[in-house]
Amino acid sequence: MDIDTRLLRYFAAVHEEGQLTGAAARLSVRQPTLTRQIRQLEAQLGVELFHRSRAGMTPTAAGAALAERVGPLLADWTQAVRAAQEAADPAVGTLRVGFEGSIINLIGRSTIEDFGRRMPGWRVRLRQNNWFDPTSGLGTGEIDLTLWHAPSNITDRYACADLGSEERWAVLPADHRLADREELDLAELLDEEFVAGPREAAFWRDFWLAAEERRGHPVRIGAVAHNADEWLTAVACGQGIGFAPRSMSQLAPRPDVVHRPVRGLSPCRVGLYWPLGRPATPAMAAFVRSCRATVRVDGTAGGTAGGTIEIGTIEGGTTARVGQTELNGAG
């Protein structure tokens, strides 16, 4: 049976979003078009993939089985297409990079221009991370690497080229009862309502709610946001407070929110991440160098820690190397 891969991508988006409206917006298609495509896929497969209700789209047993397999299938196809294109012209290609959101995006024009000098003819395609996918597209192969503010234990699953570390600060509405304080203690924030990410964000949701530091203290959720911009707007509107990288105070200043350091909260590990076991490429190594030269983390340009990147293999740890060239500097 021949199936258009576009139908599978549409199915995957609906499954991840849990509703047609969000999936249509993510895919930049009209909702009636998306509905027809899902119906077409169901007709070709001869099964019903979703239960429809006012609450959204819930996968049937057949839909759940397909969803479990469609991610790796699409990733393999994407890699096959890229391999064919790069084999035809190995000097020209596209590096796909994820970023966390417009309000905390550390990658700028200087990074892209620096990469262009290191990899002439190559392009960088930037994609904002999807909060409904904990891998941000790394799991499906939609992106090559992504910049994350992440928990330190994430290197159990991902290789990392470190850029530095950054404190997690509290973000409060400007009229909050604690807004006038210069520094806060985690214990006095635990009973506040928080703006959270969706449940699908999994360990990311827990990290930004300080689940580990709470030591079992329950979380009160005031609102759920689906991306970084929604999150900051919800905080500004008084729907809850939250934790965010310290740099947000400089990257996204607003008169209706305040940012305060928090005692008792561990920092983020800032770096470029990709799945363990996935071969690194010269383009990925070049982008690491460009970020080390241009990205400022916690007031400094570039990171100092690092794992080992060997072209064609990935070794766990934190220093990046191509051949014999260390990636700790900008060279």
UniProtKB/TrEMBL annotation:
Keywords per UniProt: DNA-binding, Transcription, Transcription regulation
Record has Nucleotide-binding as a keyword: no
MF terms (GO), sorted A to Z: DNA binding; DNA-binding transcription factor activity
Organism domain of life: Bacteria
Domain HTH lysR-type: 3-60
Any one annotated GO CC term: protein-DNA complex
Family (UniProt): Belongs to the LysR transcriptional regulatory family.
Protein name, as recorded: LysR family transcriptional regulator
Organism classification: Bacteria, Bacillati, Actinomycetota, Actinomycetes, Kitasatosporales
